[in-house]
Design a protein that fits this description.
single chain, about 350 residues, alpha/beta, two-stranded antiparallel ribbon, 13 helices, globular
Length: about 350
């Protein structure tokens, strides 16, 4: 956990919402200099903080509306801090809660050097990252439709499998295999939505790949040197990391990627794990997928997994492999070297 510890003359805590935001500005002595609700507007915000702009730092909690104020502060040369929502809740949670109290607590945390920081993702790659996340969202929705069709086939116990319906050529004649007209209409609706998704997702992928080559082609090529990491997984990892330089150590990176469990211990006794929701869920998904795809057509990789499975069981073995891939990605991007499978597997 990193805290913002720089000293300023004024500290501005904001409880940010879509239409309104509550500002609290403290001075060096901790006295409240301004505390009021204002409209969520660029010009209004700049006018309010103008008397304090000579040396003020602005902090907001990480929630969906922070993009515009982070970009505005960057453009105006105002230091900006994005607070980690879960850590902040743990530190300043209390009985009473409203916008006025929250804005004051944010300012107090900022002034006291106890503001836990989340990463302020730069605007240059942020929109493309969000486009990639949206593509993955649509892919999951399409996968749900595939699963529904296959499950319906199991419900009616059709004698033959439907095959890989992700391939358009395998979808011909599926509707007619079901006898009930209502079931046929249901399957037809699923297929219609799938066919609507296909060109949208394909175009999004082409656009994202062209942007990725523009942003960081070297890192993208290094990621694709790992067996099982293709265009999409490489893009997810690339855009969720942004730059490997923001992670001081490999332990910080694998923790951020949710590839390790955080143990709870007191008085020498362990009481399970915690922090499962702290970190990047998209990187966790990407490395979990990469661990499975790494084994496809990879006999040395399969033998390595068999050794892990014999020792830990299959589920934990895949988790260990995902963790090991995460560590490999960290050092590859740090050293700018392609993947070496012999070194990775200890051959």
């Amino acid at each position: 956990m990193r805290f913002y510890t720089k000293q300023h003359k004024f500290y501005c805590g904001i409880d940010l919402h879509a239409k309104k935001m509550y500002l609290c500005i403290l001075d060096e002595a901790g006295e409240v200099r301004l505390h009021r609700n204002i409209k969520t507007d660029r010009e209004v915000f700049l006018k309010v903080i103008e008397p304090y702009q000579e040396d003020v730092v602005v902090a907001v909690e990480c929630m969906f509306t922070w993009y515009w104020i982070a970009d505005l502060c960057t453009a105006e040369g105002i230091p900006f801090v994005l607070g980690h929502a879960l850590y902040m809740k743990a530190i300043h949670g209390g009985k009473a809660k409203n916008d006025k109290i929250d804005s004051h607590k944010i300012a107090v945390l900022l002034k006291g050097g106890m503001m836990p920081m989340a990463y302020t993702y730069p605007a240059t790659m942020r929109a493309t990252r969000d486009l990639l996340r949206r593509r993955n969202h649509l892919m999951r929705k399409r996968a749900e439709l595939y699963a529904h069709i296959q499950n319906t086939r199991s419900q009616y116990n059709l004698p033959d499998t439907l095959g890989c319906i992700a391939k358009p050529q395998n979808r011909n004649g599926i509707v007619e295999r079901f006898e009930d007209p209502s079931v046929q209409k249901m399957i037809n609706a699923d297929l219609a939505v799938i066919e609507a998704y296909d060109p949208i997702i394909a175009k999004m992928e082409r656009d994202i790949i062209s942007m990725a080559n523009h942003h960081d082609p070297v890192a993208y090529a290094l990621l694709k040197s790992i067996p099982g990491i293709g265009r999409i997984l490489g893009l997810v990892i690339l855009y969720e990391i942004e730059t490997i330089k923001r992670f001081p150590s490999v332990q910080d990176f694998v923790s951020y990627s949710r590839l390790v469990k955080c143990s709870k211990e007191s008085n020498g006794k362990k009481s399970g794990t915690s922090g499962k929701k702290i970190g990047n869920a998209h990187l966790k998904w990407a490395f979990s997928e990469a661990a499975v795809l790494f084994l496809k057509g990879n006999d040395p990789g399969k033998r390595y997994l068999d050794r892990l499975t014999n020792k830990h069981g299959k589920g934990k073995a895949l988790s260990i492999l995902a963790h090991k891939l995460g560590r490999a990605v960290y050092f590859m991007l740090k050293q700018k070297k392609p993947f070496d499978q012999d070194t990775f597997l200890g051959l």
